[in-house]
Amino acid sequence: MAPLLALFIGVLQGSTELFPVSSLGHAVLVPSIFHLDFRQSDPSFVPFLVLLHIGTASALLVIYRREWTEIIDGLVRAAVRGRLQTETERLAMLLMVGTIPTGVIAVIFEQRLKDLFATPRFAAAMLIVNGAILLGAELLRRRDERRARVAEASGEQREAAFARVEGLTFTTAILVGACQALALLPGISRSGTTMAAGLVAGLRHEEALRFSFLLATPIIFAAGVAEIPELFHSGVPIGTYLGATVLAALVAYATGRFLIRYFRVGRLDPFALYCALLGAVGLIVTR
Q1: What is the pTM for the complete model shown?
Q2: HSE toward the beta carbon, residue 74, CA cutoff 13 A
C-alpha cells in the first residue's frame, strides 16, 4: 500500500470509527467508490485495520482515562471483597459481561467475517441497514419521550426515565454488548448499534454514547493482540502503518470530544441519513 493511501485510510478510520457510521464499512467501500489503488483482499488488510482501531481505542482510553482508572480499581476491590458495593464496581461488571458476547462471536466466525471485508457492495448494503437501525432507535426513543410527557402531565408517578449506565441490569448489558458484535460486519457501526441498543434500554443519549465508548475499548485492544502479529511479514510497511495509526488516534480524539458534546443535545438522525445515502451511492457505483 502506498504511504499516502495508508495515511488517508488512517484519517478515514479516525474520523469514522467513533461516529455511528462504521469505519470498517468506509474502509471497504470508499476506496472502491473512488477507484483507489487499494486491495481489500490483501492479507495485511484486516491486521492493518485492527492496528488503526487500536489507535482509536487509545484515543478513547485517553478521553476516559480517569474513569478507566476507577473502573479497574473497582473491579479489583469487588473481586477481593466478593460483592459489589459502589456504582463504579457495578459499572466494571456491566462492562465485563457486555464484552463477552462479541469476543465469543468473533472467535467462532472470524474467518467467515474476514471474507466479507473484500466485498464493497455488501458493505454498502450494510450501511443502509445501519442507517435503518439508527433511525429505528430514535423513533422508539421519541415514542418513549411522548409517553413520559403524557405521564408527567397527568401526574402519574413513574420511575426515572432515560437513566445512567450504572442503572442497567446485567441482562441488558449482555444484550447491548451482543449488539456490538454486529459491527464485525463491514457497514454496521459498533458505536451506532450499541448506542441504539442503549437508547432502547432507556439510557440518555450521552449515557448511551459513554457506555458504547467504554464497551469498545477492551474488545478493540483484544482484537489487536490477535491480529497485529500478522503484520510482521516481509514487505509490510510497518512504519507507514504505525504513522497511519497515530493519525487515526489524533483524529479519533478530536471526534470523540466532539461527540460527547454533540449528544448532550443531538440525536442519531443525521448519521442515519448519511449512512443510507452513502450505502445507496456504493450500491450504484461499485460492483
Answers
A1: 0.89
A2: 19
